[in-house]
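Late entry, evening session. Most of the bench is empty. Finally got around to the prediction I had been postponing all week. Sequence below, unchanged from the version circulated by S.P.
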Amino acid sequence: MVCVITIGGMDRYREFYIQHKDQLFGYLMRMTGDYYLAGDLMQESFMRHMEHYGDQEPRKTLLYTIARNAFFDHHRKAKRNVQINDNHQGRSSDGEHTVLVRSEYREVLAAMKELEPGEREVLALVISSGLSYREIASVAGISEANVKVKVHRARVALKKILAQGGK
């Protein structure tokens, strides 16, 4: 099913995309650990949202639900762990600082990969999406109280993993 979108609808959807693309990419980057896969899943999520719900007002929680499902679809198809891809990093004038930031970022991504999948997902949503706990509960299909518990446990576990330098 393809929705017909008016010019006004396209303008509204363009604004929706501009407003949420960076946060959605951050969420998917934390879930996958792969820059290019996160970009592909982000694109796919926006396209699915527009194709199936383009005639409606764009909704952030629906977008994150679609992105979450796209990630799980990919994960089921791949049936392997995604490795962090360092080959395509941008350049910076302050090379040493950039190397340190990237190193810390890779450490955090690697540590997040060691979390339980449900905890990693909820923590990534909290960090990246700007969604409320209630909205995250809706996206993840769990209660708001369970979101709070998972976030707390994930933060404690992440802190422990980082303090130990990984497992």
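Two things to note before I forget:
The chain is about 75% helix and 0% strand.
Confidence is low (pLDDT under 50) at residues 81-92.
Will write this up properly tomorrow.
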